[in-house]
Each structure stands twice: as C-alpha cells, then as structure tokens.
Amino acid sequence: MGMSKNQPRLPLAKSELEVARIVWKLGQATVRQVHETLAPERDLDFWTVQTYLRRLKAKGYLQTRREGRIDIYSPRVPPRTVMRDVMDDFLERLFDGEVLPLFQHLIQTRTLSAAEIDLLQKTLDQLKTRKP
Hints:
Blueprint: H1 14-26, H2 31-37, H3 46-58, E1 62-67, E2 70-75, H4 79-95, H5 99-109, H6 114-129
Antiparallel strand pairs: 1-2
Helix pairs in contact: 1-3, 2-3
C-alpha cells in the first residue's frame, strides 16, 4: 500500500501525537495554547512544543495560517487518517503487517469483560456474514 504525495509521512513520535491530539481537540491553536493545554506534569517548554508543531506541519499532519506575527495551527488531515497511518506503521513494524497476530496478542494479554467479549463476538459475526 504505497503512500501518495499528499499523505502524511511516518512515524510520529509519542510526544508529537500528544501535541497533535490537543490541536484536534481545540480545532485550531497557537503554540501558547497547546503549551498551556499540555498536562503540567509533561513539563515541556514553549520552544519544544513549537518544534513538535513545526514537525507535525512538515510531516503533513497540520497546516498553519498567519495572524499578525502568530502562526495558528489546525489539522490538515482528519484524526482518523492519522490513527490509520500510526496503526499501519505499528502493524508493519511489530507484526509484519499481519492483523491477526495483533488481535491474538491483545485478546490474550488484556482482560476483557463478558460484555466486551459479547461485543467482540457480535463484531466477528457481522464480519463473517458480510459479503466480500
């Protein structure tokens, strides 16, 4: 599955993803707004936040518009696209792109409630009856 030129490039660092999620939540934000929204225990300085935002823009995840001397960042692609890209990268690196081993790992290592197992079974049943 090749990526087109308009598609964002991977990978995203955990901190970059954290900063991107703040921009998604706010809809648009300045460096200062992102910095103020970060959890205090994260202890990232203003310049580090600015660097992450610039990297996210360079990777194609965010765009900016200028108001006076301030850059206002906003999403360039929908969050679901970013999640898909991050998951594809993760699957490729850890499971050679195979989905089943990931599901097996999650099901065997996480505790699922009876309700969650029922929901999973329902989802699997729907997948089985879906036309190819």
